[in-house]
Write a structure and sequence with these properties.
Oligomer: single chain
Radius of gyration: 21 Å
Distance between the termini: 48 Å
CATH architecture of the largest domain: 3-Layer(aba) Sandwich
Number of helices: 14
CATH class of the largest domain: Alpha Beta
Helix content: 40-55%
Number of domains: 2
CATH topology of the largest domain: Rossmann fold
Strand order of the largest sheet: 7-14-15-11-10-8-9
Strand content: 15-25%
Length: about 400
């Protein structure tokens, strides 16, 4: 058994700056140590997939990251790990607990995952090692993980058995103040009178100043944005449906002076509604969340979503966003966007649009890892502009 500090302090020396995950009792001392240190950064995500999105965004913003979960939560990570971290070549150090370890008494819901977890990691092509239980094994485990992540540019996992880390009690956690959100609802048009997604995106582009980090959700939102204007400050989230807001949050939290605009869809936003609460709790002032809502899964044939009865602005207000507007007329959208740009966030703009997309719509021709590299260069250049001269 090791102390949490014995593992975390060498990671600090290697510039690991962002921890995110969903707790497990095996992880308690590890997470509590990070929470107790004001110079370390832990975000308790509402789901393991969201945690991957948060560390993905933090990595793009220049941090090394640790993503933590119980092995049952590894299943929730499969989509973003395979459709985001893999094609974008984004590493994170995964610490996965071994619940249901054969021969160790545990709850029945952990039995199968306990047997298949290592095979699942192998199937995901994620190399792994046992989490060290002795101080003498820490250096080698970290070095092997570092070497793998540097060479492969993809995640590496350490599998933590029960009683690997000595207990560390939590004395208190950060609290978040409740804000009174300003809400504005200006929905006036019939569906057929509303803007198309491309028209809404063009209006948004014309309203921006070009210095925002723009995160476009998976599906036709990213494809149409690429077609309209392919720029280094655009990140097309080609996979990991629902994680665009978590990625944007990870960037915004890491770079508080950089404005971050998330272009979400109704289906994607509904998939990870917990991210609204995470954003509302942590209050990133530089985050503007736009939901383009056509009440359909447009990328897969136009099947209906449940957003026709969903009031995203009211949900955001209830989740502690500072401003939450809904609009469908071009002038209201433009003015709402300009107003929210001037204010401290987090803010949400719910834009009702009509279904459909251009015929023969292309796909991004820039490879995901190339998009990542130029986006990271954009963020790095922007960071330099904020440094005192």
């Amino acid at each position: 058994m090791i102390q949490a500090a014995s593992f975390i302090e060498p990671l600090r020396a290697l510039n690991y700056g962002q921890y995110a995950g969903v707790p497990c009792s095996f992880l308690k001392p590890f997470i509590n140590y990070v929470i107790a240190d004001p110079t370390l950064n832990y975000v308790g995500a509402t789901s393991e997939g969201e945690a991957v999105g948060i560390t993905f965004g933090a990595y793009l913003a220049g941090l090394k990251t640790v993503t933590l979960c119980q092995n049952s939560g590894l299943g929730n990570m499969v989509n973003p790990l395979t459709s985001l971290n893999y094609p974008f070549r984004v590493p994170t150090l995964l610490i996965v607990t071994w619940r249901g370890e054969p021969g160790v008494k545990d709850e029945p819901q952990h039995e199968q995952m306990g047997r298949i977890m290592h095979r699942l990691l192998d199937t995901l092509e994620i190399p792994w090692l046992p989490f060290p239980k002795e101080d003498s094994a820490i250096g080698d485990a970290i070095q092997r993980a570092e070497t793998s992540m540097q060479e492969r540019e993809r995640p590496f996992a350490l599998v933590m058995s029960q009683d690997s880390v000595e207990d560390f009690e939590l004395n208190g956690e950060k609290q978040s103040a409740r804000v009174t959100a300003e809400q504005r609802h200006e929905l006036h048009l019939r569906t057929e009178e509303r803007l198309t997604r491309s028209e809404a995106l063009q209006l948004i582009l014309e309203t921006l100043n070009g210095e925002e980090a723009v995160i476009a959700t998976t599906g036709k939102t990213g494809r149409e944005l690429f077609t309209l204007a392919d720029r280094p400050n655009h990140l097309y989230v080609v996979g990991g449906m629902g994680t665009a807001s978590a990625i944007g949050f990870g960037i915004a939290r890491t770079l508080p002076h950089q404005t971050v605009l998330v272009l979400d869809g109704d289906g994607a936003a509904l998939m990870k509604l917990g991210s609204l609460a995470t954003i509302g709790f942590h209050q990133p002032k530089n985050l503007l969340h736009v939901v383009l809502d056509n009440e359909s899964h447009d990328s897969t044939g136009g099947q209906r979503t449940v957003s026709s009865i969903t009031r995203f602005a009211e949900m955001a207000a209830a989740a502690n966003y500072r401003q939450a507007f809904a609009a469908d007329r071009p002038d209201d959208i433009r003015e709402g966007l300009k107003e929210l740009q001037r204010r401290a966030g987090p803010s949400l703009l719910h834009i009702k649009i009509r279904p459909g997309s251009p015929k023969h719509l292309g796909r991004p021709t820039v490879k995901p890892h190339e998009v990542k590299e130029r986006f990271m260069s954009f963020l790095k250049d922007r960071c330099r502009s904020f440094e005192p001269s």
